[in-house]
Write a sequence for this structure.
């Protein structure tokens, strides 16, 4: 029975992942969709080079490798500063691939070092962004913001790992021995993980509702922040009023950008106020409103748990159970049973 080389298996898995991304979400996060597609292309190039000694792989492999980090950066920037806000700077990130392409044909000796610098540079930048927490991904739906932030950190770590792999290749660690194969296999496994992480982040992307930027009258409502507790209290009061009166938390596609637009307050100011007052991120606070609604429905109705989950604004059962447990210390079914027992005792 013929075996399929690992790089081609990897490419197939990435194509399946890409198909699911496009089929389920369309091209809602185009840079990350293209990133997954290029990961598949890179896996194919590696397979052709290792298994068929394809001579042109020597030219295409570094060019595709140089394209991946900038494309990942643009994908996550699209979750931080959507659409037009990053368009003016996106062309600058094409420079690394162009430089590597020129070097392939003109001066190939420094390519390995250039790729090492590229991977370490973009990897470190992505990790720096990830340290700011889920709220920095203001275009990600709250239910997926934590997973998207973890994906951001994962991609950053794996780019640094790719830089280490490039160092191993440049130093010819292992030569023709098994160590060389281990280095190559690690590269392939990293492609799978990094592609999956990008797909998870891309799934969180939500297009904003039609409308212009945050309304100009906000300056009449909230003066420039001096970092005082009064400002924070006013911001949180505005958010709380929106949540309780308009029940924004029921929108499963609610994002920090969308909340900011509704409140007339910049997203960063909401995030800062929530963090200073509550010591948590905005997605956790929104989920706490959702859990409160779920508690009410579990206690007052006989609706199925899954129906209550959607009614409260959650999209997935895993996120619902995790957040419910974090807030109440019980799972939804256990909470309902405890309420019934308490009612029976009275």
């Amino acid at each position: 029975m013929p075996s399929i080389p690992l790089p081609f298996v990897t490419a197939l898995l990435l194509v399946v992942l890409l198909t699911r991304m496009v089929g389920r979400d369309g091209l809602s996060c185009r840079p990350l969709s293209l990133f997954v597609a290029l990961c598949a292309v890179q896996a194919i190039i590696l397979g052709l080079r290792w298994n068929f000694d394809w001579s042109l792989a020597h030219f295409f492999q570094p060019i595709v490798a140089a394209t991946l980090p900038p494309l990942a950066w643009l994908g996550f920037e699209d979750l931080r500063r959507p659409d037009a806000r990053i368009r003016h700077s996106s062309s600058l990130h094409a420079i690394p691939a162009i430089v590597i392409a020129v070097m392939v044909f003109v001066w190939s000796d420094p390519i390995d070092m250039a790729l090492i610098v590229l991977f370490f540079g973009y990897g470190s930048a992505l990790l720096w962004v990830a340290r700011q927490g889920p709220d920095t991904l203001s275009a990600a739906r709250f239910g997926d913001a934590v997973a998207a932030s973890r994906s951001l950190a994962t991609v950053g770590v794996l780019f640094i790992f790719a830089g280490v792999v490039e160092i191993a290749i440049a130093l010819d660690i292992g030569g023709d021995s098994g160590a060389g194969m281990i280095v190559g296999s690690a590269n392939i496994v990293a492609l799978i993980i990094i592609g999956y992480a990008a797909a998870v982040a891309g799934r969180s992307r939500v297009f904003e509702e039609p409308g212009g930027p945050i309304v100009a009258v906000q300056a009449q409502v909230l003066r420039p922040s001096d970092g005082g507790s009064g400002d924070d209290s006013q911001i949180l009061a505005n958010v709380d009023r929106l949540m309780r009166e308009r029940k924004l938390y029921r929108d499963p596609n609610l994002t920090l950008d969308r909340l900011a637009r509704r409140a007339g307050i910049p997203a960063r100011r909401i995030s800062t106020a929530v963090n200073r007052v509550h010591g948590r991120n905005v997605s956790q606070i929104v989920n706490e409103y959702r859990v409160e609604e779920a508690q009410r429905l579990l206690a007052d109705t006989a609706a199925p748990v899954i129906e209550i989950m959607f009614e409260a604004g959650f999209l997935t059962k895993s996120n619902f159970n995790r957040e419910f447990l974090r807030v109440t210390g019980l799972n939804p079914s256990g909470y309902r049973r405890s309420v019934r027992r308490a009612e029976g005792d009275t």
About this structure: The two ends are 69 Å apart (CA to CA). Residues 210-226 have pLDDT under 50 and may be disordered.
